[in-house]
Design a protein that fits this description.
Two copies of one chain form a homodimer. The first copy, chain A, has ten helices and 13 strands. The first copy, chain A, has 322 residues and is of the alpha/beta class. Chain A has two domains: 133 residues, Nucleotidyltransferase, domain 5, CATH 3.30.420; 174 residues, ATPase, nucleotide binding domain (Nucleotidyltransferase, domain 5, 2-Layer Sandwich), CATH 3.30.420.40. In chain A, helix 1 crosses helix 2.
């Protein structure tokens, strides 16, 4: 039996055929083109899935379930996407629509949640009964695994870790509140801090690498310059990893999972990032002499969404949820 | 079968004989006198338990287990109190010591955790599979119930909700960090804000009620004056309930439990507090049109510690943990 995992992003649909563990047998992708009616997007999700199946040489009869990771929130009773801000989706009957094309059990969950599930079954937090996955990208997403299963809360609005308050009346957030954690811990935040820094230090290597244009600064430039010892970049990186360590303490002091996994674009900084956060975290813990969550980098990369979505489908079918 | 619940506080030991639900059949108490060697404190814990049993006219044979709630963290493999800052306890073999006096199974957990368990089985969050209990007292404690059971994390350091960061580099906390949530949401915080306010508004009713002495201001005075419409007190209360609403959003956006229970001294403000936080919380939520955790006041009062400790003992014995 194989499982289809679909990673529905704001710009790309990616569908993979998996062995129900970490192996992607074949995959296919298409642009999301989110302005279209949702029916067209779903049609392309089905088309990608069938194309990947064909590449893999596997018949539809051998598919156990379809899992979908979405950048929003879903509920699996009716198989509905409740909110997907990037796509402009609201109460979209995704299961029903997808089953018009492929008649298999369909399960949906948040993209960070399924990525966290992927890491907890086939990645760096493998074998951990509890883990928290933090995606450090445009925003900050969270995926929570408790007793081996995704935890999305009593009303499906849990694990929005980017929207905990880190600073009362702090930087305005896209969500409408102020001072949300993702305004300090996302790639967007790192870039904002770097742009502020180069306005004060126009001689910074960061600005040189960005061809003198602050709008060219991205996360990689900041991290590369910090690695190379540019003072402005180092200061920004130091502040960023302090915020991230505070965020990790929030996770430890709230849930104390076995593992905290850092994923998303910023996690490509690798051990440079991990070492800095590991070094700072202990000073923000409540119990400094007690063991606490292991801090790790995600290992499944961009495939985590597909793998995790497929794992979700497998898990739900095996639990006979529908 | 009855269960003994011991609430070990910084100033008082309270032991109750319970029916394994919400009913306290008899109880007894003694001063903690925390400066003493722990052996003497534990001896008095046993003495209180036996006295309460005698009052209840119940034989030791009918006791199923002893549960203990402590203002600190414990582990139930060895039955050890790991930390209890108020008592100056560190790695105290509480189970072993207590069993010298009463040879019954002994289980230990944090006081906010057992109070949360009590509310979730016999109180306001009764029947909820997930709930979070917040004690608003000298500090802010947290108790987390997931799938009907206390969640203390993979390393026992979870549910320290008072030590999430609410303000980067904010008010210094007793824990050594800065800007912890309990520096904004505890009774101590409310009192601090009121003292600051009366220094600017010496004509405030708050200062009159405190006989002109800021050091006499307590939580009740501030809340009473706010209820009566004193402008300075109202402003302080408004700020305090804003912080508390932000704290509640942190709970919703992280765990989204069925119920959030407000307990501890400040919760005696009743509906005046609850209405204010309920009114403010929605503006801090990520998904403002979605259902979210029900916000309630604790109903078991000071007995929650005893009741919850006894429930912990019962639950652990029934699960055959030892």
């Amino acid at each position: 039996m194989v499982y289809i995992g679909i990673d529905l992003g704001g710009t790309k649909i990616a569908a993979g055929i998996t062995d129900g563990r970490e192996k992607i047998i074949a995959q296919a992708s298409a642009p999301t083109d989110a302005q279209r009616p949702y029916q067209e997007v779903v049609r392309d999700m089905a088309a990608c899935s069938l194309k990947a199946l064909e590449k893999a040489g596997i018949r539809l009869d051998d598919v156990g379930a379809i899992g979908v990771g979405i950048p929003g929130i879903a509920e699996n009773v009716n198989g509905t996407v409740i909110f997907c801000t990037n796509l402009g989706w609201h109460n979209v009957p995704l299961r029903e629509e997808l089953r018009r094309h492929i008649d298999k059990p369909v399960f949906i969950d948040n993209d960070a949640t399924v990525a966290g599930l992927a890491e907890s079954i086939a990645g760096v937090s493998q074998g951990a009964s509890s883990s928290v996955f933090l995606t450090l990208g445009t925003g900050v997403g969270g995926g929570i695994i408790i007793n081996g299963k995704p935890w999305t809360g009593a009303h499906g609005v849990a694990s929005e870790l980017g929207h905990l308050t880190l600073e009362v009346d702090g930087i305005p957030c896209t969500c409408g509140k102020d001072g949300c954690l993702e305004r300090y811990c996302s790639a967007t935040a790192l870039i904002r801090m770097a742009r502020e820094a180069v306005s004060l230090h126009p001689d910074s290597l960061v600005l040189i690498r960005a061809d003198g244009r602050p709008e060219n600064i991205d996360g990689r430039v900041v991290i590369d310059c910090a690695k190379e010892g540019d003072p402005a970049a180092m200061k920004v990186f130091d502040r960023y990893t302090k915020y991230l360590a505070l965020a990790c303490n929030n996770v430890v002091s709230f849930l104390d999972p076995e593992v905290i996994v850092l994923g998303g674009g910023i996690s490509n900084a690798g051990s440079f990032l991990l070492d800095a956060v590991r070094e700072k975290l202990p000073r923000y813990l409540m119990f400094r002499t007690m063991p606490y969550s292991r801090l790790e980098l995600a290992v499944l990369g961009n495939s985590a969404g597909m793998i995790g979505a497929a794992l979700l489908g497998k898990m739900m079918v095996e639990e006979n949820v529908l």
